[in-house]
Amino acid sequence: MRRTILATIVAVLTMLTLAGTALAVDLPSARHPDGGPPGGGELDVTGVTARERFIPLGVKLAGNAVVNGHVYSYNDVPIEGAWLHWGAPYEDTWESGDRQTDASGAYSFSGLPAASGNGCLYLDVDFPGGNWWYAERNDASWTDPGPTTFDWHTGAVHTYVTRGGPEGWDGWDTVLTELYGADAQSHLIAGSPLVGMVGDVEGNTYVPPGTYERGATYFWVNQGLEYSLPAAVTVTAGRSASQTVAVDQRDAQRIAITAPYGSSGKPGTKVTLKHWQFPPGWALDYYGWADSPSGTPFKDYADTTTSGASPFTKTLTIPTNAPAGYQYRLVFDNTSGVLSLAEVFQVCTLKASKTAILKGGAIKLSGVIPTEGHWGETKGKSKLVTVYARTKTASAAPTAWDPAKQGWAKVGQAKANGLGAYTTGNLRPKRTTWYVVRYPGDDWYWRAYTSVLKVRVY
């Protein structure tokens, strides 16, 4: 279930800033910029496995198990509107569903298949002012018919974070701490952010009662620090634990796409993923999925066992059927620990009506770029894209926002519509020419380039 919770967290952390030459994804909230996960409020498990099946309310399942309980705040006040999600294996599928708590903080699922140490419950709570809290029960059991009760209370762990590290990476205003432990009913993963702070950060991480032994603190979605707690932390409902979690950003693990420049390009692009400060012996499991309505394609990449060398790189290929106009998310889990980091690649296209023409002939260029608000058939913002060309060989996009400094000449503009699709007017290259399209950023996507396209003139 680690991939399921990560799909929820990573898919919605989409505010982007540029950290030096590396793209770092901020942690502004647990939500997509539109206020909820793209496509709805349910657990985003699309693409996690080909046999995943989300069960809408009212659909009859092949079981009679009942799972219920209440959700309470730190002060033991019932929380209305918290999202609860369940998941459990049934035959060759992974069944799942969700609902919200009522005014008394109560929730109830019925008709579930029984779970024997392999069920999962996920809690997602929003608070006023942009704060949020989540928790997951893994390896849980419930009987058929039940009921089996899982109540959710909250305790606190005092958390202190020292800011520092490479220039640009310490520019965050939100830091997320996630703790790993267990209680008598299941294993626990839980976390909450500290929001809107500058300098060193101090506050509470809210988690269910239990005993916690490991943790990870995330400064960006591609920078985080994994650690074992010096001593087991015991959390009690409505109280702050006696132990403190203290971390230093300078010790964090980091990843970044270093090629192609701008972390953007066509499906099938080879991506260089650079890693810093990884200790030896970590087993990293890499995978990816499209941040699109379908979530597909999902791809497993070859694992890597770290040697302790820093930095080191890994080459990953964006699937050839990755949908244009969306991000493709590259993720790894430390299967020998708890850390998960992700990077994002913007998929965009550039095509020519003809890739070889006689001298004096004309072509049109077209393609799709990411644009804010576009999701499936929902249209987003239209924007102008700029076409650049050069007659000297170019194997990659410019590495400056003003490509004229690198021998590129502006040859036109085109309007990308609300779906991100654009088509230029006629272009008449006099000799073999390399083209690239530059597009502006918005609140969802950073500014970037398409891959380079060659048009042969003979």
Strand content: over 45%
The helix fraction, in percent, is under 10%
The CATH topology name of the domain at 351-457 reads Immunoglobulin-like
> Tell me, what's the shape?
elongated
- The Rg value, from CA coordinates, equals 24 Å
Q: What is the CATH architecture descriptor of the domain at 351-457?
A: Sandwich
Give the helix tally.
Answer: 1
Average pLDDT, to the nearest integer?
A: 87
Instruction: Note the gap between the termini.
Output: 56 Å
Largest sheet: 12 strands, mixed
User: What is the count of β-strands?
Assistant: 35
Just give the CATH class of the domain at 351-457. Answer: Mainly Beta
Low-confidence stretches: 1-60
